[in-house]
């Protein structure tokens, strides 16, 4: 399964300096297939990106890879268009622009790597974005608490355990068979 990242233009960038823009150029070259080098991306990362796209939309997530430093930025685009104008004004957010939750992971290690860094912002909203600071604090605290319990192997084992419930001889069939003693006898 091939997940392509998005290349960002200058106006979409979040104030990067020239060296970061150079890295983005390298990333875009790699993602568009016009460069020879391939980056190793952990398969669980690909699976999780696809799950987000399946649940929401392709535009709900964007990916930027920094292969030279083994990092990947995952940007989750939170649509806030449902907010009333009064609420948006009180919270000092732009209703027509998504809030971006950026998580930076290890590209090759993913859940086995260091705890991800967290950024929260609206690209056009640089002044007084206190909601972003609050969301960053909440997300950072949650990530810190949960990260020590996560690993690629643990997640894989959980998924296999879940899938075994639905296999032909799996747990769900055995569970239903055990319940049949409580079912009325068919006539």
Describe, in plain words, how this protein is organized in 3D.
This is Poly [ADP-ribose] polymerase 6. It comes from Ataeniobius toweri. Belongs to the ARTD/PARP family. Keywords: ADP-ribosylation, Glycosyltransferase, NAD, Nucleotidyltransferase, Transferase. This protein has 187 residues and is of the alpha+beta class. The protein has 6 helices and 4 strands; from the N terminus they run ααββαββααα. Strands 1-2-3-4 form a 4-stranded antiparallel β-sheet, with helices on both faces. The longest helix has 18 residues, at 130-147. The protein is elongated and about 50 Å long. Residues 1-19, 21-26 and 28-37 have low confidence and may be disordered.
Q: Over all CA atoms, what is the radius of gyration?
A: 21 Å
- Placed side by side, the strands forming the largest sheet appear as 1-2-3-4
Count of DSSP helices? 6
| Strand-pairing-aware structural class | alpha+beta
Strand residues, percent:
5-15%
SSE succession: HHEEHEEHHH
The largest sheet is: 4 strands, antiparallel
| Oligomeric form | single chain
Measure the end-to-end span.
50 Å
The tally of beta strands, per DSSP, is: 4
Instruction: Give the overall pLDDT as a whole number.
Output: 75
- The percentage helix is 25-40%
Anisotropy-based shape? elongated
């Amino acid at each position: 399964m091939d997940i392509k990242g998005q290349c960002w233009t200058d106006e979409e960038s979040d104030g990067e300096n020239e060296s970061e823009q150079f890295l983005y150029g390298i990333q875009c070259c790699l993602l568009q297939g016009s460069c020879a080098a391939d980056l190793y991306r952990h398969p669980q990362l690909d699976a999780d990106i696809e799950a987000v796209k399946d649940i929401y939309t392709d535009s709900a997530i964007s990916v930027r890879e920094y292969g030279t430093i083994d990092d990947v930025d995952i940007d989750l685009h939170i649509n806030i268009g449902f907010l009333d104008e009064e609420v948006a004004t009180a919270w000092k957010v732009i209703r027509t622009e998504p809030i971006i939750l950026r998580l930076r992971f290890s590209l090759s290690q993913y859940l086995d790597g260091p705890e991800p860094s967290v950024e929260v912002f609206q690209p056009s909203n640089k002044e007084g974005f206190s909601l972003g600071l609050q969301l960053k604090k909440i997300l950072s605290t949650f990530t810190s608490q949960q990260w020590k319990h996560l690993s690629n192997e643990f997640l894989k084992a959980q998924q296999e355990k879940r899938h075994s419930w639905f296999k032909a001889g799996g747990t769900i069939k055995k569970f239903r068979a055990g319940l049949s003693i409580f079912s009325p006898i068919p006539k």
